[in-house]
C-alpha cells in the first residue's frame, strides 16, 4: 500500500492544532508500513464530514472572504488532483453562473492524466471568465498506460498547447489594473537548510518520492540537483518585458507558482512524518524571482499564491503575503478541520483590495505566535511515536 494514499493526521500532545503532512509524491511501498498498520498508530480527529455521494454539496463561500463584491474578483485554488473521482465531481459541481465574470488562479497539480486535465480545465474555463495556470509535478508525470508522452518535456508542451486552445492563460496579464504573474518553477534539495534528522532511519528521496520515476527528463536535468529548478526558472525570462510593464503600471500584483518559495511556509521537518519532505517542495530561484517582482521589502499590495504541500496557509513574510488554498485529496478534506468545500475556491481579491486572511490555517497560525527552531532535531512526540511503533 502506498503512503501516497495515506493522509496522516494526529493531535499533538501539547497543542490543539492538527498536525498533518500531505505526502503527495511519496511512496513507502518498500517499507513494511501498510495502511492497517498505520491506523493502529495514528489517532484521527473526529471531524464533521458534510459530503454526499456523487455531487458534493457546496455551502456558501464565507462572507468574510467576499463581502459585497464590485468589479473584478480573483479566486485561487491549487492541487485539484481530479484523477480522484470525488475531486472531479467537486469541479463539475461548481456553479455555472456565480463566477462568470470572475478570474481563477490555478496553482498546479490539476491531474496526472491528459484527459482529466482537459476535462478539468474545460470545466473551469466554462465557469470563470479568465483562468490562469502553472504546471505542478503531478501534471508532468508520465506513467499512465495508453498515454503517449515520451518524456515530461513533451507532456509540458502538450499541456501548454492545450491551455492555449482552451483560452487558459499561462503568461502574465493585467485585469482592471491588477497584475497577475504566473511563475514556472521546480524544487531542488538544497532548498532545505534545516538540520538533518539523524535519530531515526528515514527512507531516501529516491525510494520515497514518485517524481523520481514518474517524471522523465533529459539526461542533463535531475531531481537530485538544482538543474531542474534553473530550467523552469529560465522559462520565466520570456515574460520579463511584460513583467516590467506590469511593475510600472500596476499598483497591485499577484504572482503565483506551484512550488514553495520559502521554507518558512512549511512546518519544521521535525514535525513531519517524512522529515526529508522539505527537500522536494521548493526553490530559492522562485523566491528570488518573486522578490524581483514585488521588491525585496515587499509591500501591502504584494501577494504570492502557491500550492504543492496541501497545507492551507496565509502569512506575511518580509512584506509579501503568501497564500495556499488547496483542494487536496478527498481524505485530506475530510480530516482537516476547516474542510474545503465550504470556502474553496478562495477569493483573494475583490472590491479593488485583497481579502481578509484565510482562516483557520493551523500551521501558519501556529508560526504566527511560535518561533521556528530550525536547529532543533528532536522529533515532535507524535512523529517519534510513529517511528517507534512502525
From TrEMBL:
Alphabetical list of InterPro entries matching this protein: Calcineurin-like_PHP (IPR004843), Metallo-depent_PP-like (IPR029052), Pantetheine_PDE (IPR052963)
Domain of life: Eukaryota
SUPFAM superfamilies in UniProt: Metallo-dependent phosphatases
Single GO term (MF): hydrolase activity
Domain Calcineurin-like phosphoesterase stretches: 72-151
Name of the protein this chain belongs to: Calcineurin-like phosphoesterase domain-containing protein
